[in-house]
Amino acid sequence: MPSRTRKFRGSRTHGRGIKAGRGAGKQGGRGNAGLHKYQFKSMLIYAPDHFGRHGFKRPAETIATHQSINVGQLETIAPFLSAAQALRQDGDKWVANLEALGIDRLLGGGETTRSWSVYVAHASKHAREKVEVLKEPPAPAPA
């Protein structure tokens, strides 16, 4: 008895009809094929928001981005603060103005070996527990 493939030699479609033997022919295409044509009604019923834009994108200049550091990084940026004349020492406490470096948020990650007083626009609750946050900028370091 001949094999099925051998039986269909010479037949153009091997008994499948014209499109059924090609790719995803009998199921009407793969994925979202035909949503603007023959599957348009099902798209309207099951996925009416499939096409078009939704919502809006805020312009980049309206989105506030914060420069932030952790409490544990204060000692590593101390040389940069002193170069910007934004760091001074009052007894055993170090007083820093972080806004001189463009930093406007202090987060509470890490630990410090020194005690700090820091002026910054925003500070997290954990940062306030670890360092003293000043309400107004400290006087600049003497030259």
Quick tags:
three-stranded parallel β-sheet; 143 residues; elongated; Ribosomal Protein L15, Chain: K, domain 2
Description:
- The protein is α/β, with parallel strands linked by helices and 143 residues long.
- The chain has 2 domains: 17-52, no CATH class; 68-134, Ribosomal Protein L15, Chain: K, domain 2.
- Helix content is 16%, strand content 17%.
- It is built from 4 helices and 7 strands.
- The protein has helices at 4-7, 40-46, 78-83, 125-130, and strands spanning 68-70, 87-90, 93-97, 105-107, 115-119, 122-123, 132-134.
- It has a 4-stranded mixed beta sheet with strand order 2-3-5-7.
- A hairpin with a 2-residue loop joins β2 and β3.
- The longest helix is centred in the N-terminal third of the chain and has 7 residues, at 40-46.
- The N and C termini lie far apart (104 Å).
